[in-house]
Amino acid sequence: MELYNTMTILKNLVDDYEEAIDKGKLAVASRDVELILVFINSSRDLLARSKPIITSTREVMHNITSENDKLAKYISVYYRMLVYISIPYIADIVRAAADILEKQGYSNEAGEARNLFKEYSSFLDTLK
To answer: What pTM, to 2 d.p., does this model score?
Structure first.
């Protein structure tokens, strides 16, 4: 049952990242400060939620004994999708948003976005 719960939580997290990526791309493309700030705040919350989930998933993956278990394969795919695609993509969008905020004169908000980018980057460094 633990594998099923882990898989479900990871799947939901992947979905949340996909939604955040869509919102972030829209915010950056439109250069709308309001949308960018909403995206930055939701990305910060998403990172905070991701850390314990991914940490516990790594432990679960380490304890998987049967490589043929379909749930284990799904967990592995969702984990890799987050680590190699979704999280780096969000980090790149956050960096682009910081640049836009800086160019539009929102230095404090740009600084916060840059700090968030650094948090994402350091989190990624611990995962690879």
So the answer is: 0.90
